[in-house]
Amino acid sequence: xxxxxxxxxxxxxxxxxxxxxxxxxxxxxxxxxxxxxxxxxxxxxxxxxxxxxxxxxxxxxxxxxxxxxxxxxxxxxxxxxxxxxxxxxxxxxxxxxxxxxxxxxxxxxxxxxxxxxxxxxxxxxxxxxxxxxxxxxxxxxxxxxxxxxxxxxxxxxxxxxxxxxxxxxxxxxxxxxxxxxxxxxxxxxxxxxxxxxxxxxxxxxxxxxxxxxxxxxxxxxxxxxxxxxxxxxxxxxxxxxxxxxxxxxxxxxxxxxxxxxxxxxxxxxxxxxxxxxxxxxxxxxxxxxxxxxxxxxxxxxxxxxxxxxxxxxxxxxxxxxxxxxxxxxxxxxxxxxxxxxxxxxxxxxxxxxxxxxxxxxxxxxxxxxxxxxxxxxxxxxxxxxxxxxxxx
Length: 392
What we know:
single chain; alpha/beta; Rossmann fold; 2 domains; 8-stranded mixed β-sheet; 6-stranded parallel β-sheet; 43% helix; 17% strand; globular
């Protein structure tokens, strides 16, 4: 006999997927499942995924919202309506805690009359994120979204966030007591077993960029830096979490800058395939730009942690969110953001110092083992959940 869910986790994201968000969702669910007997996941899905299922092994109900709506804000409203309907079902009468990772899940939860504890997982704020995706979005819409964010922040019982920068932003921007916001960074799971090495079309000596390709990731800066290294015939491998058809604009950028022939692309690799690519790289790059999204709001780049976990040193932008993770010349290398010449010079110098790269990689891996394994982050999440349930 299946139990009615005791917790709900809500995410306006597709799950499962190869994106970093799905990795975070997976480990939040593990922490919740270790705290409660049964739960419900409400998320997005694609046509190949079942709309509703019960996962016997994990004792987890899963509802995936898949309605096709082109307009983003209309999609979020319809998703909120779907969440409200689910909350009113008899299935949800035993809910003790609801964890949501965005305001689109949080608004219907916090407007609902049933008593339960709420955890708002703040990875980003939409009034900062959306202009990157929709440059023509109006100021009035962004102001309305900011008000909705204020509502979710103020009405939630507790907030968790992966970055100290984001924690400070929440406290100052939304006037929240510091005790209400807990920092739980991203983590990693290390796959040490042998895997079949993916054969590249060119020389196996390569530097690696992996992850999404949004503007704030510094892709243009990276391409310009690679141009500075053309005489070395070094290859840049890009393992992106998005489908190939969505990379055309980035390939055109590489063509315009003159580095198209220096790049080898891979798309939507699974975790073990990506692990092979990381472990065989000379170094990885995380050239985050110095924009509000990274500097003011903050983030916690999973790509940096994953690379360090395999002993592969990272060359990353010298900005506060990165300094939370990397000590320059000890566990990685920092360069000024948005300066391709500096990035290119740093990579060139490091390619000539293999022993230094090896030593930094060793220090980085130990740092991750000591501080950033997912099992430890899950333990922190379980503490938050248990504290909320016993809090009077």
